[in-house]
Amino acid sequence: MKNIDSRAHVTGTSIYVDDIPELRGTFYAVVVFAEVAHAKIIKLSVSKAKEAEGVIEILTAKDIPGENEIGGIIPDEPLFADGEVHFIGQPIAVIIADAHFAARNARKFIEIEYQELEVVIDPREAKQKGHLLIPARTFANGDIENGFSESDYVFSGRADSGGQEHLYIETQGSYAIPLENNNIKIYSSTQGPTLVQKTVAKVLGLQMHNIEVDVTRLGGAFGGKEDQATAWAVMAALAVQKLKKPVKLILDRDDDMIMTGKRHPYSSDFKIGLDKDLKIKSFEISYFQNGGAATDLSPAIMERTLFHVTNSYFIPNVKATAYSCKTNIAPFTAFRGFGAPQAMFVIESAIALAAKELGVDKSEIQENNLMKTGNVFHYGQVCDSNNAVKSWTSLQEKFNVNAEKQKVKKFNSKNIFVKKGISLMPICFGISFTKTPMNQARALVHVYQDGSIGVSTGAIEMGQGVNTKMMQVAAGVFSVDISRIKIESTNTTRVANTSPTAASSGADLNGKALQIACNEIFERLKNKAAEILNTSYDEINFEDEKVYVGREVSKLNWNELVEIAFLDRIKLSEVGHYATPIINFDKNTEKGHPFAYHVYGTASITVKLDCITGVYEIDSVNIVHDIGNSMNLTLDKGQVEGAVVQGIGWMTIEELDWDSKGRLLADNLSKYKVPDIYSAPKSLEIIPLETDGPELAILKSKAVGEPPFMYGIGAFFALQDAIKDFNPNYKMEFNAPLTPEKVLLGLYGFNGK
Ligand code: LUZ
Ligand code: MOS
After folding, report:
1. From CA 591, how far away is CA 589, in angstroms rounded?
2. What is the number of the ligand 2 atom nearest to the C-alpha of 335?
3. Ligand closest to CA 643
4. C-alpha–C-alpha distance, residues 674 and 643, integer Å
5. Mean pLDDT score, 641-647
6. Residue 698: Cβ-neighbour burial (10 angstroms; 0-12, 13-18, 19+)
7. Which of 9, 383, 545, 585 could be a cystine partner for 558, CB 3.0 to 4.6 Å?
8. pLDDT digits (tens, 9 = 90+) for 481-499
9. CB count, 10 Å around CB of 247?
10. Which of 284, 461, 641, 706 is catalytic?
11. DSSP 8-state secondary structure symbol assigned to residue 744
């Protein structure tokens, strides 16, 4: 089944926030933000800007009737800076004007005087100064010291991975509309409508029921709109409350890049111990997470890092400590993988270092240590499948990896200035929000008198196709054609208390809730059909909108059955509620069973490097991916393809840097290298691993949003492989992204200075 949005996307008729027909009298808002990274605000005057053409109103911290607070986990983030600023891009005020450009123009008349304070950019420096967002946390298992003393080889090193700009095509934005009795309706480009509703109520001094949030779809999010969509909705709503007029706030791309948080850069120290058989005995890590200037989601992201310390490997002795470091940069936030990619880059670096020192192929160590059924993850959950090994061996068989390795060797022996490299990358990703209470969802289903069906869930369509999957779930339960079903917008008045659509769990959680709601209605209809056809409940079957008695088709069809049921006053609406069973986690012992299941897979990545320019191409990526019993292979492959390209971008060409004053260097699209068709693999093949799929996945079809992102890590090591072939003295450094510039330095021995 195709993505139900394809046609509208291609013809340009899909509706995003900025496409909603505007009401008469709509005003436009632009955000004023800090130009220095850390300072006291000595003076803030908006009077000149207020005189500028078209300006209606300017709102600052003192105009907030409720709490000036938008921090979700820890209340340390004001909506508008009050007295101090902590990063360049921190909102200070919002200008409302009769046109977007009028508001933007007025921004230059805002007068702010700062008394500058010390700026810290580096997470290790922040940690040294004691600037932590939350206390450090340690996950440990076994006895690492014992593990190291039992090891024949011990290696230590450092690994650094950079940030990443989300670059959703649709920038952040909202459109807020006044309703009667001081209620407000907000259209928001958010993954978390309930978070928007709750935060608007808090800042405006209202109750949640005063705020209705509605989302049709997003033009991409990737985690960037899990909680950082909220501020823009709150500002628009604040202006509506003041002015009683509709207010639209859509960020221009440059404002979006400057003001919003990105993937967390990490710097890590590791120590790995192996025995003679290349079994990893012990692994010790310190992660320094660059958290930025406010907590945002950093504790949850740090937690997911700690869960993914060992990737798909079984390591008996582990000790991992993570520090979430406060720096003067826009608060870093959720991004596809949510801290797990950063952890997996470190273990892969440790294995690469060990392989180099021992003179063995990295894949030998990888293969030797894969998780097997019955192995216990360092956080206490028991591994319940052999999918890590199965995907590894299946990749060898399906794509003949050994032959590919030989080809690379042969190519390199014949070429001096062009070199190839190949690397294998296994992945293992835990599915469920690591915060157990978030793993719940609801769905509302109406069967209308004419047999058509309306479905509302808490899931947000952001291009991933979750609405298509929801349609498949409902159509499957009722055995009706998909044309009968409409997936409604996601709206807080129809489905309340939603978790954000995140953690790859949108289809599982909302799909299960939808299944429950549909089944309830279906049961009633089935009973009614049995009554009408004078037979037993067990004899009734549905297929293609017809009712069967046993295997025989009856005269009764879907439409007639619904109509009779309605006239008989049978309830044709239902709310389904789902909460993931089994999962638990004890934060005192840092042990439990936090994940409904794990997703596994293995990729092989081949790169080709021009050793004169340092420029490279990704020749091919071959993957055996664990999708379970995929309910929509087209959508699922689309997720894998997009994730791989995004992961390769993070590891190779996307570079975020800040100067010592805390200014983002790549703050617009002419400076930030976006992965494009040329950086995508020339060939990308995905074969689903043959497995049944777990009960806790919707229709046994596994979550697919985030796990394949981590295949991109293989590109880094494939490139190192190619560099090594050209320069045998290459001093391997684990410092991502491995840009052409860094590659060139490595090729000619200048890396590490
Ligand atoms: N968001 C969240 C996530 O709040 N908790 C999670 O565990 C998570 N995991 C992945 C992506 N987003
Ligand atoms: Mo996400 S990183 O699943 O919002």
Report:
1. 5
2. 2
3. 2
4. 14
5. 98
6. buried
7. 545
8. 999 999 999 999 999 999 9
9. 28
10. 706
11. H
Euclidean distance between CA atoms 422 and 718, whole angstroms: 5
**DSSP secondary structure letter of residue 701:** B
| Dist. CA 496 → ligand 1 center (Å) | 19
Mean residue pLDDT across the chain = 97
Compute the distance between CA of residue 730 and CA of residue 614 in angstroms, rounded to an integer.
14
Which residues, judged by CB distance below 6 Å to any ligand atom, belong to the binding site of ligand 2?
191, 223, 226, 334-336, 338, 502-503, 706
SS (H, E, C) 600-622: EEEEEEEEEEECCCCCEEEEEEE
Smallest-distance ligand from the CA of 297? 1
DSSP summary character for residue 315: -
Q: Does residue 737 have a cis peptide bond before it, meaning omega lies within 30 degrees of 0?
A: yes
Supply the pTM of this predicted model. Answer: 0.97
Single-letter code of the amino acid located at 711: Y
Protein residue whose Cα sits closest to atom 5 of ligand 1: 433
- Residue given tokens 């992965």 in the structure block: 675
Rounded Cα gap, residues 47 and 52, in angstroms: 9
The two three-digit tokens of residue 87, written as one number: 């990063």
Question: Who's near 750: CB < 8 A, 6+ residues apart?
Answer: none
Active site residue 303: no
Q: What secondary structure letter does DSSP report for 328?
A: S
Give the residue from 141, 652, 121, 654 showing the smallest Cα distance to 376.
Answer: 141
Residue 294: helix, strand or coil by DSSP?
coil
Return the C-alpha torsion angle 137, 142, 144, 149, nearest 10. 170
Band (751; pLDDT cuts 50, 70, 90): low
169: enclosing H helix or E strand: none
Task: Tell me the residue type at 365.
Answer: I
User: Ligand 1 pocket check: which of 74, 297, 304 to mutate, most ligand atoms within 8 Å of Cβ?
Assistant: 304
- Strands 211-215 and 440-447, sheet pairing: unpaired
First to last CA, the chain: 54
| Token pair listed for 211 | 């705020």
Alpha-carbon gap, residue 338 to 466, rounded angstroms: 20
